[in-house]
Amino acid sequence: MQLDIRIATVADLSTLNNLYAEMDGESELPPETVETLFEQIRAIPDYRIYIAESEGEVVGTFSLLTVPTFMHRGFHKFAVLDAVTVMPYSRGRGFGREMIKEAIALAAAAGCYKVTLSSNLKRDRAHGFYRSLGFEQHGWSFSLKTVPERPDLTVT
What we know:
Blueprint: E1 4-7, H1 13-24, H2 31-42, E2 47-54, E3 57-68, E4 77-86, H3 95-109, E5 115-117, H4 124-132
Parallel strand pairs: 4-5
Antiparallel strand pairs: 1-2, 2-3, 3-4
């Protein structure tokens, strides 16, 4: 299995929109929203969306953000792995495993001391998959929904 991983470009937006919608069984976002979000992501230093291809066909994607921190002596950067998605027809072929390994290698090359990710509580298969790659549950993840004060900063 040959897997090529590259940084996503504007030409990938339709495919990314499809992948993200497919992941949770949602409808696709309007193209102008996808374009706006992509430009906002590209403006953030050290935040990249990656595309995985096999034999010229897109099989998956993941996002990786590297973040500086004061909290760990000796190493002052960690990575957040997000939006790991494999096309339904490509699942079970090892692409997800290779994508995660590449994300870990990218994080290590950037000087990160850890890679974190978050997964929906309902995704038992995904949790087993992440454990098989060496990830361990560490503490609890908390979130709080807010009401944005400036609607002009939100994209729907």
